[in-house]
Design brief:
Elements: H1 2-14, H2 16-67, E1 70-72, H3 79-87, H4 93-99, E2 113-115
Antiparallel strand pairs: 1-2
Helix pairs in contact: 3-4
């Protein structure tokens, strides 16, 4: 056993410069990987924050649009088109007609203001 250890130490001693070079290369490689991961993480976080801001802005715009209580009739509008624009469902047009007590829901005047429930 003693001879084995001496032989091992001799081999290590003889290859000390090679072993040091390899260990140095591994350390440099690991530091490089850590630095790259750090910058990728920051970049990913920034992209995530930008996307979150865009989503929040889109939600606010959608909420503002949904909270609009009046709609001014444009040329070529119908209750169906208004319902699709407001509720994304044309079948909601009777609610608009009922909220505005429209006698003839097929007849809308340009510039007419409608209450949107």
């Amino acid at each position: 056993m003693e001879k084995f250890l001496k032989d091992l130490f001799k081999k290590v001693k003889l290859n000390e410069s090679t072993i040091s070079t390899l260990i140095g290369a591994v350390v440099i490689l690991l530091v490089g990987i850590l630095i790259l991961n750090y910058f990728k993480k920051e970049e990913t976080e920034q992209l995530g924050q930008e996307l979150q801001k865009q989503e929040e802005k889109a939600q606010q715009e959608m909420m503002a649009k949904m909270l609009e209580e009046k709609y001014t009739v444009q040329k070529g509008d119908s209750l169906w088109k208004i319902a699709v624009g407001k509720y994304s469902d044309g079948y909601q047009w009777p609610k608009i007609a009922q909220a505005n007590n429209l006698a003839n829901p097929d007849y809308l005047e340009e510039g007419q203001e409608l209450e949107l429930p």
